[in-house]
Structure formats: C-alpha cells, structure tokens
Specification:
alpha+beta; 2 helices; six-stranded antiparallel sheet; globular; 21% helix; 8 strands
Length: 157
C-alpha cells in the first residue's frame, strides 16, 4: 500500500529498521517536499515488494551504466511520471537514497543522483564519486553526487 510522505511532520515509518532512521526519514521528507513543490504531486512510497519494477529499473541502470551493485537492502521505493520525466527513488537501509530522473523524450536530461543521510559513511560501491555537501532543514547535512545516464533504459512502469 502506497504511503504519502509527510514533509511537515517527519516520520520514520517505513525506514525505522535503518541505523540512521531519523536522518533517512528527513532525507525522504526533503525529497517529498521538492517533488511536491516542483511538480505539484504528492510523493508516495511503497515497499519494494509492492512495487518491484522501480527498484529493478534503478538497479539495472546502475549496473549497466557504471557496474554498481548496492549492497544495502531497499526499504522503500517510489516510481512515478511528472512533466514527461520518469522518476525512480530507492531508499536503502544504510541511509542511501538513489533517484533516477529520466526524461522520456529522446535528448532530454537523464541522470542518477545519490544522497547520503547524515551519519552515513560513503558505501564502498560509491567510493569513486565525489560528494558535495548541502544543508536541509528536514535532513540536516546531505551529501550528494550524480552521474549522467548515457544509454537507453525504457521506463519501469
């Protein structure tokens, strides 16, 4: 069952098994606020079992584009389309959040973003990336990085 992420009253529901649950919940709320404000839609999350296509799509892109395999289990996912862009979010137990922004029309922007929750070490599989720091009222300090998607990866949904 999908759950709308409340970015006013931040809750750890769904990510409470993470060792950095409070920070991950803040990071998830930060993403929800961005999506709601930018695209005017509610940001909803599901378990990977309820929406297996989204984490598989993200996993396939990571593996095919950069040979990256994330070792942490996925706790929640969100897959949707807005303004001609396919989005895929995966929130991992380690505190890592990965989002794919994939413009459906050829020639549009396509990228994978990585965000680390406060208190989380950079996972070994992402050690090659440089992470920039940003402040968030909801998530504290976020460290983020990204790469541009070069190949074609048809939508998960």
């Amino acid at each position: 069952m999908s759950t709308v992420v409340d970015f006013v009253n931040v809750s750890t529901a769904g990510v409470e098994s993470s060792p950095v649950a409070e920070a991950l919940a803040g990071l998830r709320a930060n993403e929800a606020r961005y999506i709601t404000n930018k695209y005017g839609i509610a940001f909803t999350v599901s378990t990977p079992e309820e929406d297996p296509k989204t984490p598989q799509w993200v996993t396939d892109i990571l593996r095919e584009e950069r040979g990256i395999v994330i070792s942490s289990p996925a706790l929640e996912v969100s897959g949707f389309e807005a303004d001609g862009i396919r989005f895929g979010y995966v929130f991992y137990a380690s505190g890592l959040a990965i989002n794919v922004m994939y413009t459906i029309e050829a020639g549009g922007k396509r990228a994978v973003g990585f965000k680390l929750s406060l208190g989380m070490d950079v996972p070994e599989e992402l050690a090659a990336f440089k992470f920039a720091r940003q402040r968030s009222k909801l998530a504290g300090e976020i460290r983020g990085s990204y790469f541009v998607i070069k190949g074609e990866h048809p939508s998960a949904g």
